[in-house]
Amino acid sequence: MRRREPHEFGEDLMCPDCGEEARHIPPLNQPPGWARPCHSHRDGSSLCPGWHEEPGTGRSEFGPLRPVVFVPLAKVTTA
Predict the structure, then answer these.
(1) Half-sphere exposure of residue 33: CA atoms within 13 angstroms, side-chain side
(2) What gap in Å lies between CA 40 and CA 22, rounded to an integer?
(3) Which of 17, 18, 43 lies closest to 28, judged by CA?
């Protein structure tokens, strides 16, 4: 089986905590001066907060989670 490329299945993003659909637009409810995340819920609110690791640094921090890509099982298996 060949290796799949990133975004080959589409861009169905979702919040890893609540499971709501996410979008690639900064949230509307972020206070000015804070580092704005790149993703938000469909209603414009920040993604749910939680502990996550900063890529490449090995440090954990508390803040809005990063979205995950939803891949339907039928797209990756024939079962």
Answers:
(1) 0
(2) 6
(3) 43
